[in-house]
């Protein structure tokens, strides 16, 4: 969460629906490829509590509604805050020492968005040629996959915005909207409060 003691900082906002899908995959990967055994044990117990002992971790569509509710009532990410609380904490216009960008904008216009962030953080003009070299060096394409090509074992699973549409059904949409619908609209991710009615049942 934001703290006034923080130095000049950049905050990357992302559609909370994509956050939920990404977080689900990240937590499942933390169970199956544990770097921290105690965290893996906690997450394994949580998943079994939510979905039952014999749940199918690859059935994301079936598992998402309960996962979204759990992350909205007793969140494990964002140091105990919900997605909405975290976004509001950082995106207040009162924070003059924070530059906000969106994950979706970074994908669509990487040079312009990263230049905006770097110029805010350094008070210096950015050399766009050097910036392009850096962006190319750390591009998703360096994974050997095309953006959107999924690898469930990779930390960089898919590298796209809007992947939630592949995993959300009506129940997941209603659940997310109940807890985060106002935030979703406030930051321009939806204009219709009943956006979830077009999702498959």
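^ structure tokens above, recovered residues below v
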């Amino acid at each position: 969460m934001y703290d006034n003691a923080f130095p000049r900082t950049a905050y990357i906002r992302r559609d909370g629906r994509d956050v939920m899908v990404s977080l689900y995959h990240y937590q499942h990967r933390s169970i199956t490829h544990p770097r921290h055994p105690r965290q893996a044990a906690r997450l394994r117990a949580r998943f079994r509590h939510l979905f039952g002992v014999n749940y199918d971790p690859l059935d994301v569509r079936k598992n998402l509604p309960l996962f979204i509710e759990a992350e909205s009532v007793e969140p494990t990410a964002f140091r105990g805050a919900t997605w909405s609380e975290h976004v509001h904490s950082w995106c207040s216009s009162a924070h003059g020492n924070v530059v906000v960008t969106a994950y979706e904008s970074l994908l669509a216009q990487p040079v312009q968005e990263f230049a905006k962030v770097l110029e805010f953080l350094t008070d210096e003009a950015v050399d766009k040629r050097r910036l392009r070299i850096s962006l190319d060096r750390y591009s998703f394409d360096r994974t050997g996959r095309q953006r959107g090509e999924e690898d469930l074992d990779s930390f960089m699973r898919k590298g796209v915005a809007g992947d939630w549409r592949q995993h959300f059904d009506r129940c997941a949409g209603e659940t997310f909207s109940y807890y985060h619908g106002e935030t979703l609209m406030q930051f321009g991710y939806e204009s219709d409060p009943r956006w979830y009615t077009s999702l498959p049942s």
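The longest helix spans residues 16-32.
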